[in-house]
Amino acid sequence: MALRLPYRSLRTTVLAVAAVGALVTGVLVGAGTSQAATSQACDIYAAGGTPCVAAHSTTRALYGTYNGALYQVRRASDNTTRDIGLLSAGGYANAATQDSFCAGTSCVITIIYDQSGRGNHLTQAPPGGFSGPASGGYDNLADATLAPITIAGHKAYGVFVAPGTGYRNNNTNGVATGDQPEGMYAIFDGTHYNGGCCFDYGNAERNSRDNGNGTMEAIYFGNIKVWGYGTGNGPWIMADLENGLFSGVNAGYNAGDPTINYRFTTAIVKGEPNHWSIRGGNSQSGSLSTFYNGARPNVSGYNPMKKEGAIILGIGGDNSNSSAGTFYEGVMTSGYPTDATENSVQANIVAAGYAPPTSTGGGTLTPGTAISLRATTACCTTRYITHSGSTVATTVITSSSSSTDKANASWIVRAGLANSSCVSFESRNTAGSYLRHQNFQLYLHANDNSSLFASDATFCPQAGQNGQGNSFASSNYPSRYIRHYNNNVYIASNGGSNTFDATALWADDVSWVVTGAWTP
Ligand code: AHR
Ligand code: AHR
User: What atom in ligand 1 is closest to the CA of residue 200?
Assistant: First the structure.
């Protein structure tokens, strides 16, 4: 199906890819029909002489001809598994398979398949220097639904790594060892990170232990400052080389490594004898920048390298598992890719069309619908916006909560009192009372029919700033968003002067999943 493009559009695709410097792989399709598959990331690396030896994605094919499974999910209701494949060869994930298989229950991602043919699949990480929180000291598996996006307009899911989550393969094939050259890139959610060790993707120890300086070479993303860091407050792309995250030649600070936090961030680390590089960019537009390109760190133990060739995702080499992040795709190569090859891969990533989700997470913001609003910050994913009298807060609500608590967490979506293209939230159990802000804090007050009340009670939804659910801008303070802070609820301004305007956890604190109401 994917290849049945009219000649003209196919030719345009081919020329567009060729124009950014990629080589196009021609394939024969069907009897007597010569057509070219779109050259995807690993085709571009292969054409550059540095083929992928691992290719992981839950969103799309990384080869123009790949038509296998992307990942596997397991549902809680009966512990059965299902492979999630593609809408077409070389194309995008078939998220509908996951949605129907996981409907009415929960699902975790059990396997992220390697598309390279080398069998370097990622599965639940085992204990090592540190144990994970799951049975047997393994790390947790990612909830399959927590990182929804669209890609070229198709729904897809990333891998949402909450602290404690991790994937690994300690028995790989073809991945660089010793001082052998390799490259890697990954696409992360630049707004989902933390300061725990260590949200990594790349090369690590085969025994899940700290085997000394130079026994890893992985991409790190986050804002931990225990080892290296760059300018601003982070997050930074750094190289985890074991016993150190490096932002450049120095341990600690390197001025060339900027804070980078695009919603979709392309992150690159590559290394060869006494030479390595950090690069990055916006996965939705533009080109890559080079943040470091030079000699191995001026600290002993990293030249030559002693890479071991395991692959990690979401954890440190020794199974440190305090970190958070979201992964959409990534590859590892054999050989040190040229900047030109990576630039072509970046163009392919941009063309893939990553975008935040358009869905609202199960509930709907259609006026008249009863909904609940769930927090998405890692601390608080079982907390909902509730009222108790006029006081508004986030409260943990579960199926065993009292019916009063459930009703206090339930709201009826109304056309916005001040702007019908936005929304207002009327209390489910206190008819005529609405969520409104006053002195920038949210309260439940009866509608007094004033224009001030209407404005204070009107919120304009947009895609959630952390990629989940929705964020809600105040209609009369449009740079302020509904935000929880210390479990109270405000309209906050990112980096403003109030305590509740803190930039830390901003994107998570202002993103709410709209669920069906606890009390429908
Ligand atoms: O290099 C930083 C971290 O240090 C590694 O990921 C981990 O193995 C060690 O704790
Ligand atoms: O509201 C709970 C938490 O409190 C928020 O996530 C954080 O911003 C604050 O520390």
Answer: 6
| 3-class DSSP state of 130 | coil
Amino acid type, 95: A
Spatial CA neighbour of 93 closest among 50, 137, 156: 156
Alpha carbon of residue 101 to chain centroid: 22
Question: Cα of 243 to ligand 2 centre, how many Å?
Answer: 31
Catalytic residue numbers read: 242, 318
Ligand 1: does its nearest atom lie under 6 Å from the Cβ of 198?
A: yes
H or E, element range at 515 = strand 512-516
Which residue out of 487, 489, 493 has the highest number of ligand 2 atoms within 8 Å of its CB and is therefore the one to mutate?
487
Ligand nearest to the CA of 240: 1
Q: Measured between alpha carbons, how far apart are the two ends of the chain, in Å?
A: 42
Distance CA 404, CA 300 (A): 62
312 lines ligand 1 (CB under 6 A): no
Number of residues that this document lists for the chain = 520
Among candidate residues 185, 198, 182, the one with its CA nearest the CA of residue 275: 182
Q: Does 509 contact ligand 2 (Cβ within 6 A)?
A: yes
Distance 192 CA to ligand 1 centre (A): 20
Distance 378 CA to ligand 1 centre (A): 22
Gap between the Cα atoms of 389 and 98, Å rounded = 40
Cβ atoms of residues 280 and 260 within 8 Å = yes
pLDDT tens string for the chain (520 positions)?
Answer: 333 333 333 333 333 343 333 333 333 333 334 456 789 999 999 999 999 999 999 999 999 999 999 999 999 999 999 999 999 999 999 999 998 998 878 899 999 999 999 999 999 999 999 999 999 999 999 999 888 899 999 999 999 998 999 999 999 999 999 999 999 999 999 988 889 999 999 999 999 999 999 999 999 999 999 999 999 999 999 999 999 999 999 999 999 999 999 989 999 999 999 999 999 999 999 999 999 999 999 999 999 999 999 999 999 999 999 999 999 999 999 999 999 999 999 999 999 999 987 644 457 888 778 899 999 999 999 899 999 999 999 999 988 889 999 999 999 888 899 988 889 999 999 989 999 999 999 999 999 999 999 999 999 999 888 888 899 999 999 889 999 999 999 999 988 999 999 999 999 999 999 988 888 7
What is each CA distance from 339 to 211, 218, 279, 290, 383, in whole angstroms?
A: 31, 18, 9, 9, 45
CB 39 within 8 A of CB 319: no
Closest atom of ligand 1 relative to the 241 alpha carbon: 1
| Ligand 2 centroid from CA 498, angstroms | 13
In angstroms, the CA 208 to CA 200 distance is 13
Residue among 441, 485, 501 whose CB has most ligand 2 atoms within 8 A, to mutate: 485
